[in-house]
Design a protein that fits this description.
The complex is a heterodimer of chains A (134) and B (353). Chain A contains two helices and eight strands. Chain A is mainly beta and 134 residues long. Chain A has a single domain, classed as OB fold (Dihydrolipoamide Acetyltransferase, E2P) (Beta Barrel), CATH 2.40.50. In chain A, the strands form two sheets. A five-stranded antiparallel β-sheet of chain A has the order 6-5-4-7-8. A three-stranded antiparallel β-sheet of chain A has the order 2-1-3. In chain A, a hairpin with a 4-residue loop joins strand 5 and strand 6. With 353 residues, chain B is α/β, with parallel strands linked by helices. Chain B has one domain: Thiolase/Chalcone synthase (Peroxisomal Thiolase, Chain A, domain 1). Helix content of chain B is 33%, strand content 25%. Chain B contains 13 helices and 15 strands. Classes of the chains: A mainly beta (134), B alpha/beta (353). Chains A and B meet through helix 2, strand 7 and strand 8 of A and helix 3 and helix 4 of B. Bound molecules: zinc ion (ZN).
């Protein structure tokens, strides 16, 4: 039986549901996850923004063995995805045959179950990606 | 003529999971007569992936509805999810979906249950909220991961999918709900007890006294009150527990097959329950032209039906291309085996280790 942190999931809901990121008004770079200072230049002159969820696969790997709670999702394709807003994120790519994933493939955000805490705990949702439809 | 509704459909969105299981596969596994799929006209049904549920499919359909609506999420004053497959027994689906869509806290939000017509009830509630200016616009979602017990005939049709509508100002609308009517009784045609994983149905009781009686009365009530006849409509969309019932109820009401077929979805994706008639309406909105009229009649067990008279406006063309059409979503598919289907829909009993 797993017991995930309820406050942590709640605190991060803007980040995991809507890909909230920071945009630095000094150096013009975007980064994820959001924090109080730009990781590139240290500036606090930042905006909080939400990604539209469209991006491209830069690298990927296929996981055939994972911890027990993720076994139902296997095989899991993990991608390093560069969002159109400029930042990168590591996230699962779903609705796809692992053999047909390629670097440079366009992907779009989809809200999915990320973790299910046993049979009585929270269902945690978050953004995964799938091949773009248009 | 009674007071008209005159409330707009600002945007519509559909979502159908990518996975399909064929009726032939289900018949093969359970040893059913292979003529059954043809007799009920269900060729394939959509299967939600293992990480999909009513929350995630509601989000997908709503994103598309918002894209077409042209309004900001902050203008949504109410979010309703009509479903009979809530991920939580206690904790609203609507709050999660609204938060994930960026709809701010100043709103109403709830899940409605009335078998397959809860989302339709939400449309009628929305008409009241918008006309009374309590809400500028509302988001109505019909979504289900419908449950059919393994080996039950229901398993041929019970599927996964969602449809979403933004209801609001008729002047910005792709289509206007001109009038509506409801017909509701206590009829025990289909039910699922609290805590039970699969529903029960009253077998032959589901047809004549339930589906046909309620839809015919809801539609005839609308016709009598507002003076419509079948000739006034270019399309007729009915709840679709299978492919045959909508054609049969349409014939009873005096509609030609040609007016019903454009809104038929169940033979290709199964019965998405709260999605069913509303996906059919979305499919018609994907092709309808200015000044065409659409009759929509959802049905839910328990039992009740609604009837809507909807007129298409000149804004439909510009909105149509802003999101995928139902036809595009139907065509985008990956066929799976019965084994994969049981895993995806949680029909395999696993023990926690
Ligand atoms: Zn910076």
């Amino acid at each position: 039986m797993f017991k995930d942190s309820v406050p942590k999931y709640w605190r991060l809901r803007d980040v995991v549901y809507r890909l909230k990121y920071i945009y630095c008004r000094d150096c013009g770079k975007s980064s994820f996850p959001p924090r109080s200072k730009c990781p590139y230049c240290g500036s606090s002159n930042i905006d909080h923004r939400y990604s539209k969820g469209n991006g491209v696969v830069e690298e990927y790997t296929v996981m055939y063995q994972s911890e027990a709670r993720y076994q139902d999702y296997q095989p899991i394709v993990f991608g390093v995805i560069r969002l159109d807003e400029g930042f990168r994120i590591v996230a699962p790519i779903v609705d796809v045959d692992p053999n047909s994933v390629e670097e440079g493939m366009r992907v779009e955000a989809t809200l999915r179950r990320v973790r299910v805490d046993g049979s009585t705990g929270l269902i945690q949702y978050g953004i995964k990606f799938r091949p773009s439809r248009r | 003529m009674a007071s008209a509704d005159n409330v707009g459909i600002l945007g519509w969105g559909a979502y159908i999971p990518i996975y399909r299981i064929s009726s032939d596969e289900i018949a093969r596994v359970w040893g059913f007569d292979d003529k059954i799929p043809d007799s009920i006209w269900v060729e394939e049904k959509a299967v939600g992936a293992i990480d999909e549920d009513t929350v995630t499919m509601s989000w997908e359909a709503s994103r598309y509805a918002l894209m077409r609506s042209g309004i900001d999420p902050s203008e949504i004053g109410a979010v309703f999810v009509g479903t009979e497959s809530k991920p939580y027994s206690v904790k609203p689906t609507a709050t999660i979906v609204a938060e994930a869509l960026g709809i701010p806290p100043k709103k109403l939000a709830s899940d409605l249950e009335f078998a397959c017509r809860a989302a339709s009830e939400a449309i009628r509630i929305s008409i009241g909220l918008v006309k009374s200016q309590i809400a500028k616009a509302t988001l109505v979602i019909g979504a289900d991961t419908a449950q059919g017990a393994p080996g039950d005939l229901l398993e041929f049709s019970a599927s996964s999918g969602a449809a979403a509508y933004i209801i609001g100002n008729p002047n910005q609308a792709a289509a206007v709900i001109v009038a509506s009517n409801s017909y509701i009784t206590d009829t025990p045609d289909f039910w699922r007890r609290d805590g039970a994983p699969y529903p029960e149905h009253g077998e032959i009781f589901t047809g004549e006294p339930a589906y046909f009686h309620h839809i015919v009365n809801a539609v005839n009530g609308l016709f009598e009150e507002y003076g419509f006849t079948p000739k006034d409509f270019d399309y007729a969309v009915f709840h679709q527990p299978n492919g045959k019932f909508p054609l049969q109820v349409g014939a009873k009401l005096g509609f030609d097959r040609e007016k019903i077929l454009p809104g038929i979805v169940t033979p290709y994706v199964g019965n998405t329950y709260n999605g069913s008639a509303l996906l059919g309406l979305a499919k018609v909105l994907d092709i309808a032209k200015e000044d065409e009229w659409i009759l929509v009649a959802p049905f839910g067990s328990g039992a009740g039906a609604d009837a809507y008279a909807i007129r298409v406006t000149d804004k439909i063309e510009e909105k149509r291309s802003l999101a995928p059409t139902v036809e595009e979503l139907i065509k985008r598919k990956i066929l799976i085996s019965y084994g994969e289907y049981t895993k995806m829909r949680g029909k395999i009993r696993k023990y926690e280790r």
